[in-house]
Amino acid sequence: MKNIYSLLTIAALCSMALLSSCDTDGEENFTWRPGDNLRITGSNEIYTLQEESYYVEGFTVDETYQWNLSGPSEGQLEVIREGEFANVSADVPGTYTLTVSNGTYDGSLTIEVTGVEQFAGFETDSLYTMENVDTLRIPVTISGRNPTESEIAFTVTSGTAVDGTDFEVLTASPLVVDEITTDAEAGAVTTFIEILITNNIMLNEDALYFDVTLDEVTSIGEGEYGIGINEESNTTRVFIEDDLKFIAFENAQTDTLTNASEAGVYTFDVAITDVSTEETTINYSIAGVGVVDVSATPGIVVLTAGQESAEIAVRLDAIAFQDNQEIVITLEQIQTLDQEISFMEEDGDTTDNVKIILIDVE
């Protein structure tokens, strides 16, 4: 019995030794290792001056990560949060290599930087505006993104329109274009040159004009990402047209009256299509039987400066309804210092300056 107990004791000790040996081997065989490289995640294709963020996978807070960017230029490398990720941008196109190391393992990523060349120009080579537009905004378009704050030098050249008399340049040269933080595929960027147009009362035989020319664009840094001048659209000619104003009856349609019970005072508004800075006097005549001009100043209607309309007042007496007839009120002559005011014409004939009251006795 004693021998059996001894044998069991020996067997148990051997088993423990064997299990201890197996645990040691298991620890050596299954310890996790990260591999030979660090992995960088982020785009491998960017545009010049487009900032892109790159992360290191498996970042550990108690390790130190060193980032480096190499290529045709130094580029811009900003390391964030102890090396967890880095912001990268480059101002020169080409192939760049981004690397990261924690002292034990290394990682790298090849980044292709594509240059984007943009041009500034006008949307059209000619613009037409009216004198009464007040401030004219001339659009200047950069064909793609505007990666930095840019300055566009321009000149304004008088033609038949004279600077200081017919217009005033409100935007100083160079025109400053603020940074637009979008990528190159976001589309064109538009800014404006502002011109104050003088609203005068002179009638010009032809439209006045002046020219605006884009001379040079400067931006922070140089390279293929830079903005140039589109030589095919660097000049626009601005034409200033008279803001013609027309005098007419507000309602020139024929009115029909049929019964003497409709006798009384009637008023008819004379209007101008756009107010003037000058007083305007319109002479008129009335033809018909039984009609009396009861306006404040018979035969004359006055539009003061800034006034949109004034009225002619007539009284129709009972005698006006004895027979069928047409009572005709005709606007005949305009007196004003504003040369841009006239009666409206169509095919050479004056229109809307006659008001007819048709008496159609039942």
Describe the protein:
The protein has 362 residues and is mainly beta. Helices cover 8% and strands 47% of the residues. The chain is built from one helix and 30 strands. The chain has one helix at 2-30, and strands at 40-41, 45-47, 52-56, 66-70, 76-80, 85-89, 94-101, 106-114, 118-122, 126-130, 135-142, 150-158, 167-169, 175-177, 189-197, 208-219, 227-229, 235-241, 245-249, 255-257, 264-272, 280-287, 291-293, 300-303, 309-316, 325-336, 341-343, 345-346, 349-350, 354-359. The N and C termini lie far apart (151 Å).
Distance between the amino and carboxyl termini: 151 Å
Strand content: over 45%
Radius of gyration: 43 Å
Which shape, going by the Cα principal axes?
elongated
Mean pLDDT: 84
- Characterize the biggest β-sheet: 5 strands, mixed
Low-confidence segments: 17-35, 181-186
Which structural category do the helix and sheet elements fall into? mainly beta
Count of helix runs: 1
Q: Number of DSSP strands?
A: 30
| Spatial order of strands in the largest sheet | 13-15-11-9-17
Task: State the helicity in percent bands.
Answer: under 10%
Secondary structure topology:
Blueprint: H1 2-30, E1 40-41, E2 45-47, E3 52-56, E4 66-70, E5 76-80, E6 85-89, E7 94-101, E8 106-114, E9 118-122, E10 126-130, E11 135-142, E12 150-158, E13 167-169, E14 175-177, E15 189-197, E16 208-219, E17 227-229, E18 235-241, E19 245-249, E20 255-257, E21 264-272, E22 280-287, E23 291-293, E24 300-303, E25 309-316, E26 325-336, E27 341-343, E28 345-346, E29 349-350, E30 354-359
